[in-house]
Design a protein that fits this description.
- This protein is an alpha/beta fold.
- The chain is built from 43 helices and 20 strands.
- It has seven domains: 12-57 and 159-263, Rossmann fold (3-Layer(aba) Sandwich); 62-150, no CATH class; 279-357 and 570-685, Rossmann fold (3-Layer(aba) Sandwich); 361-561; 699-739; 750-774 and 788-828 and 1053-1168, no CATH class; 833-1045, Lambda Exonuclease, Chain A (Alpha-Beta Complex).
- Helix content is 46%, strand content 10%.
- It has a seven-stranded parallel beta sheet, with helices on both faces.
């Protein structure tokens, strides 16, 4: 008796949507069995690749497809509505997105042409013409690939069902080997099931394989509801119905296995995925105690608070012994917020595991390479060139010098003679002498030589940067790589910086090594993509076809678009960071869903290029079935399946403001869940820069909050101090953080010792006035004319200008940066002339015009019948000055210079009108650009006039003031003769001269008036005022007007030490003024070192004023005494950050980048 053989067990191959799902299934097997083999599991893409190779359908890459389409699209679209668009660089990529979606929906070129013809006959002219043009391009594209005998990726998959069904091409034994000997395929359908994939399952089923497809379906309670009816909204029902319909219609031989979203096999939170899509009454019935206990909703004020809350929740889970790999963080649009989310997790020290790395296009070397290509497309404009040359990856230290030189030369791009040609022309201009005296002759000569040297040094590099406008792909690649090598970018990506020794330096070195590895990998990706682009062109017969530079850039960007870096973070031991689509259908123990806001969940969908909603509807009507999926159906399905996959807990968060501060609306899904669970279940998280201690998720946040609590006056401070006494590490953290909390008052710079000596040496400052005597014998004059200098005689403390004194008064730190450290502000990048250059032009024009009209007897300007003559003569002089300026000075780009010439003429007209308005006062302009203590511009070998000597309170030492007065007017004669100093300003001057600031922060006009009174003692009085170069208006009040308005200004301009002592004596009389001494009077005496309260009247001098804040605000005011108080601050080495008016001084300060105070204009003004 023979025993029959038992039937072999059925071998099943389970096909999962992605490789991540396979890895997750293997982890589940390991947890259950302790060991697992990848038998009976395969991802969908791997199975398709096996079948494609077996059927000889290996597709060409996307690069070849783009190149082939770009070659045929312009000709195919000629005469259609897409003729112009088809020639754009990005057209090929956009069209392939549309064509791939149409082919996945089951349309081929012939079927698409039939649908287009049907639409054209229906009278829908615009839609019909558009579809006809698209069909023509699709037919030409498929014909081009057919001529080469190749297929693209979607085209090969569309033909795969036909090849699989052909037994002659693919035998039974070969097919059984491809499916690992399985007789049954269990297909897990993910979020989408295109028509061509359903046809593949049908072809495999007809070959004798048993194919079972698991499809998510609605629960029985909702399955009978009509779409959009009272039971269910359209979004979710439509998304699930498309999956079922494609299988039923295209694959009738496939066994359909329904997988309900709720019930057996679903997670405890599956009902939460249905609540947003059912009415409120039905949603309330879906809520059970398990759902209430396992679902958390957080409503944050902004994105920062949302991320902090999520990090705090995850850290609490980790502290509760939840393994990191069991936590999944999902975002609806991960690519948008990826960097911010990773930064928050890194700050909270939470390990992260990513399935997808950062796109390689975001790497700095590639951004720099594409910036170079884009700049070359636009003829190397200076702004784009600066973005390339100023990069840290460019190994050229003189790049900032070149960019500044190109700005001086007025070169905006490389057209015409080019950047270097304009630079050489400007250098030749600087080699000529200038009559305007904007720069010293030796400085102009040095600048000219430097510009010639820069042009010669950069000549070879610019030859590399000028990429060919049209060439073959291989020639373009060679030019780009040659330019990158010339810039030194590959060499820089291999050089590790020298960081020194120490643990902190070792950490920095480790991070630097990782960064260099990423940069090197990015350059390798660029090289591989470039060679792949060349090979792709050869594959489709376009290797020798020249293409424009813009098209080459588009092809290279597209080739690198899908390339990603190796994902950072740990492997298998970190919190998983996923896109919401990846979570759908997979299992996770804890789900944290971020960014539940409108526009992201649900999002705007994936709009198809060239088609709007009306075009979609017209296509569906012409085909007689839904061809393309609903725009928002994918988000609804992904959310429902993701909630059904949760096995433990879930947290959904939203925010009211995005990262840019814009208001956003909470997601309708979040609102529906909050309504069903009750709004009391939503945890609010207010927006704030520093979170509370409960919400802190990073060490820096804790330290910041602790320091803020320590300075608070309430009981929190006492509790914090008590905790610090029991926890030494907390006390150390408090001391460390508070030691680094700077305030405005703490930003002090007090030099002493050698540092103070070096500062005084740079200034030429000798507080004692003890200088070696000047020998009587003078050296012979040099054969070449040189700038004259005044001898430094004994008793001289300092020789400076009014502008320097005003800088120290406004903010001592600005004086320190400019005069002691000799720091130059960052040069402007604007093409137009600088404010100083614009003011110099107007100074020269107005001075020359007024002198010419004075010689011709036209001053004072009276207008009337001679208005036309005055204007004509003034504008003639203006043209002469502008022509001379154009020949020897910087003008900027030619169009801007022409515009500026017109503006100078306009401002001159306004100044002439302003002169006519004050002509009735009888002032006669006599002196222009009069200097004192400075070399004469016409004869630099001699001094133009003696400086103004300002003695100290005892008359033993002196300050020598040098400067140049813009204009001096006189009127009257003999004893009635009066003088008026006019100082030109570029802005408005209406209320510029202020009573409370005279001799405090406004020193220039009083000092100039004192100089004029000393130079011409016969004048009855001297006055001073500002004049605007923009509108010709004068300041509302002059110096004399303010002096006559108060007795405190009676002795404002007095320089005699004895008279000044009498004026000070009035201030300290026992009439009450002595008791009103301010902080400045309490400063130590610089001459005697005693306290002014205990000093005699003769000793109450030499007070130290660290800026204008220390100068007296009440009592008799004297210019010389205030100046010497400021000099005492310089002598003491006090260069504190003490702006008098932070709102004005700090806003326009050029040294804000190195200031010890972060923003002076954001702080309250200190009391005087």
């Amino acid at each position: 008796m023979s025993l029959g053989r038992a039937a072999p067990p059925e071998r099943v191959l389970r096909v999962l949507p992605t490789r991540e799902h396979v890895a997750e299934a293997l982890r589940e097997r390991v947890r259950a069995q302790g060991v697992a083999l990848a038998l009976g599991l395969i991802d969908l893409r791997s199975l398709e690749d096996r079948l494609l190779r077996a059927c000889a359908l290996e597709p060409v890459g996307t690069t070849e497809a783009r190149l082939a389409l770009a070659a045929v699209a312009p000709a195919a679209a000629r005469g259609t509505t897409l003729a112009q668009l088809a020639r754009e660089p990005g057209f090929a990529e956009s069209f392939l997105v549309l064509w791939d979606n149409l082919r996945r929906a089951g349309l081929d070129a012939r079927g698409f042409s039939q649908l287009a013809a049907r639409l054209s006959r229906r009278g829908q002219s615009l839609t019909g013409r558009r579809f006809t043009a698209l069909a023509e391009i699709a037919t030409a594209y498929e014909t081009k690939l057919g001529q080469r005998g190749v297929f693209d990726g979607v085209g090969a998959r569309a033909r795969l069902p036909e090849r699989v069904a052909d037994r002659e091409r693919l035998g039974d034994a070969r097919l059984r080997a491809l499916v690992d000997g399985a007789s049954c395929l269990e297909v897990v359908v993910g979020g989408e099931l295109p028509v061509i994939r359903a046809r593949l399952w049908q072809a495999l089923a007809r070959r004798g394989l048993q194919v079972r497809a698991e499809v998510p379906v609605l629960p029985p309670a909702l399955a009978g509801a009509e779409l959009g009816g009272a039971g269910l909204t359209t979004e979710l029902a439509t998304a699930l119905e498309i999956l079922r319909r494609n299988l039923v219609e295209e694959a009738p031989a496939v066994e359909l296995i329904s997988r309900p979203l709720t019930g057996e096999g679903a997670g405890p939170l599956a009902a939460a995925g249905l609540i947003p899509f059912v009415p409120e009454t039905q949603a309330a019935r879906l809520v059970d105690p398990a759902l209430r206990g396992k679902l958390e909703l957080i409503d944050a004020g902004d994105e920062r608070a949302e991320l902090r809350s999520a990090c705090a929740k995850i850290r609490a889970l980790l502290q509760a012994k939840v393994a990191p790999h069991r936590i999944t963080v999902a975002l609806p649009r991960l690519g948008i917020a990826r960097a911010r989310v990773l930064a928050a997790f890194d700050a909270a020290e939470i390990p992260v595991e990513e399935s997808r790395g950062q796109p390689v296009m975001d790497a700095a070397p590639l951004r720099l390479a594409f910036a170079l290509i884009e700049a070359a497309e636009r003829d190397l404009p200076r702004e784009a060139l600066a973005a390339v040359l100023e990069s840290a990856y460019v190994a050229r230290r003189d790049a900032p010098l070149l960019l500044a030189a190109l700005r001086d030369a007025g070169s905006r791009d490389d057209r015409g003679v080019g950047h270097l040609g304009r630079l050489r022309a400007h250098a030749a201009k600087l080699a000529q002498p200038s009559p305007f005296g904007l720069d010293k002759p030796e400085r102009r000569a040095a600048k000219s030589a430097r510009y010639f040297m820069l042009a010669d040094r950069w000549e070879r590099l610019f030859e590399r940067l000028r990429l060919p406008r049209r060439a073959t792909l291989r020639a373009h690649l060679d030019a780009v790589f040659a330019a990158l090598r010339a810039l030194g970018i590959p060499r820089r990506c291999l050089s590790l910086p020298d960081l020194g020794q120490g643990s902190r330096e070792r950490r920095l070195e480790r991070d630097a090594v990782a960064a260099l590895a990423r940069d090197r990998a990015a350059l390798e990706s660029l090289e591989i993509a470039g060679h792949g682009l060349d090979q792709a062109a050869a594959a489709v017969g376009l290797a020798d076809e020249p293409v424009p530079l813009a098209d080459f850039r588009a092809h290279l960007e597209a080739a690198l678009a899908g390339v990603r870096e190796r994902p950072p973070g740990v492997r298998g031991a970190g919190v998983a960071l996923r896109d919401l689509d990846e979570v759908a259908g997979s299992r996770c123990d804890v789900l944290v869903l971020l960014h539940a806001v409108e526009g992201e969940l649900p999002g705007p969908g994936r709009p198809l290029p060239f088609l709007d909603e009306d075009d979609r509807a017209a296509l569906d009507r012409a085909a007689g079935r839904p061809v393309l999926a609903a725009v928002r159906g994918a988000d609804a399905g992904a959310f429902a399946m993701a909630m059904a996959a949760v096995r433990g807990r879930a947290m959904i968060t939203c925010h009211r403001q995005d990262a840019g501060g814009r208001e956003v609306v909470r997601s309708r899904y979040f609102v529906a869940l909050a309504t069903a669970l009750g709004h009391a279940s939503v945890e609010p998280r207010p927006a704030g820069v520093v979170p509370s201690l409960v919400e802190c998720s990073a060490r820096g946040q804790v330290l910041t909050r602790v320091v803020m609590l320590r300075t608070s006056p309430d009981s929190a401070r006492a509790r914090l101090e008590a905790a610090a006494r029991t926890r030494p590490e907390l006390a150390r953290a408090l001391d460390w953080a508070q030691a680094r909390a700077e305030t405005l008052e703490g930003a002090q710079i007090n030099l002493d010792g050698p540092a103070l000596d070096r500062a005084h040496a740079r200034l030429g400052f000798v507080w004692s006035g003890e200088r070696p005597p000047v020998p009587e014998s003078k050296p012979e004059p040099a054969p070449e004319p040189a700038l004259a200098t005044l001898p430094l005689t004994p008793g001289l403390v300092w020789r400076g200008s009014a502008t320097s004194l005003e800088d120290y008064a406004a903010c001592p730190f600005r004086f320190h940066a400019a005069r002691v450290l000799h720091l130059r502000p960052r040069p402007s990048i604007r093409d137009d002339l600088s404010t100083a250059e614009q003011g110099s032009i107007r100074h020269e024009v107005l001075a020359a015009a007024m002198q010419a009209m004075r010689r011709e007897g036209l001053t004072p300007l009276i207008g009337g019948d001679q208005t036309q003559r005055e204007d004509r003569r003034a504008h003639e002089i203006c043209e002469e000055i502008l022509d001379r300026w154009q020949g020897v000075e910087r003008t900027g780009p030619w169009p801007l210079w022409l515009l500026h010439r017109d503006l100078v003429h306009r401002d001159l007209g306004r100044l002439l009108e302003g002169e006519r308005r004050v002509a009735i006062e009888g002032w006669e302009p006599e002196e222009f650009e009069r200097g004192f203590g400075l070399p004469d511009p016409e004869a630099p070998a001699r001094i133009e006039g003696p400086p103004l000597a300002i003695p100290d309170r005892r008359g033993a030492r002196r300050l020598e003031l040098v400067g140049r007065v813009d204009r001096i007017d006189y009127r009257g004669d003999r004893r009635e003769r009066e003088g008026l100093i006019l100082d030109y300003k570029s802005g408005r001057v209406g209320d510029r001269l202020r009573y409370d600031q005279l001799a405090r922060t406004q020193l220039q006009l009083p000092l100039y008036a004192a100089w004029l009174a000393t130079r011409h003692p016969e004048l009855g009085y001297t006055d001073a005022a500002y004049v605007s170069l923009r509108d010709g208006e004068r300041s509302r009040a002059s110096l004399l007007d303010l002096s006559l308005s108060s007795m405190e200004l009676d002795g404002l301009l007095e320089l005699d030490p004895a008279t000044r002592a009498e004026l000070r004596a009035r201030r300290f009389e026992p009439s009450g003024e002595l008791g009103a001494l301010d902080d400045a009077d309490e400063a130590p005496d610089m001459d005697t070192g005693t306290d002014p309260r205990a000093a005699t009247d003769a000793e109450r001098d030499g007070l130290v004023a660290v800026g204008a804040l220390d100068l007296p605000t009440t009592g008799q005011r004297n210019l010389a005494d205030n100046v010497w108080s400021l000099l005492a601050g310089v002598a003491a080495g006090r260069f504190d950050v003490r702006p008098y008016d932070p709102g004005r001084v700090c806003r326009y300060c050029p040294y804000g980048a190195i200031c010890r105070v972060e923003r002076g204009d954001d702080r309250e003004e200190p009391s005087a």
